[in-house]
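Changelog-adjacent note: as of this version, every example in the card shows the full chain rather than a window. The one below runs 272 residues end to end.
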Amino acid sequence: MSGPRQMISLGDRLARGMLIALTVMSIVLLVAPSLIVIAISFEPRGYIAFPPSGFSLRWYWALLERQQLLDSILVSLRISVMVMVVCLVLGIPAAFAGTRGRFPAKTAFNAFLLAPQMMPGMVIGIASLFFGAYISFRASDLMLVLSLSVFCLPFVVRIVMARLAGLDPLLDEASANLGAGKFETFFRVTLPQLAPAAFAGAAFTFIEAFDNVTVSLFTSDVRARPLPVELYYLVQFESSPLIAAISSLEIGLSLVVMLVIARAVGLERFGR
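Full-length structure tokens:
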């Protein structure tokens, strides 16, 4: 009896060891590139090198002297906020309809809402470009907001739908029994419970819209390019650590947003 038990115990240990090794390897592969970029951003010399030869904030100060880059950051912030608002306004009712609604082809409707998340961003960017050309609608801030909203809408829809699925529908019935109409029930009972999910969806949407290059490259106005597109062109003509410094700031922004979500909402809520 001891032989089979020892074999099972040995197999469990090997499986656990392999799982730990794969987990560590995955974390390293995900985190190491970001750490390398951050390290390169402190390189004092005028070219990219790793490991850096010293520590300097030269390229962070250099960013403040590049007016074109500062303008592109403002463009990205403005576009990201507008995309976030559009996705919230459209995503919350769409998620409510996809979860609580009763109508034919509901499955197809939900698949349609989440379809942009299954497509490469470049496909959406090219499709938006061709559609805009067909209706004589040139690349502009409005075109960029619309195309990014299509791409980012599933972030809000998925998170809000997951939250809605966990809510007790008896609360809505109790509200109706007390005389509240459907709209009053939605705004006074359901919507407050969706606030954490809406906040998380808005944050993810903001980050995705701010960092997106595949859609922005095809639909942004050449006279007011967002930061990802500006970096795309900058990489072709410049190889200084300035690019790493900007990328490090974007990494920091993403971390700050994630920490705010974890602090204000709690990421564990979306794992239930």
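Structural remarks: The CA atoms of residues 35 and 248 lie 9 Å apart.
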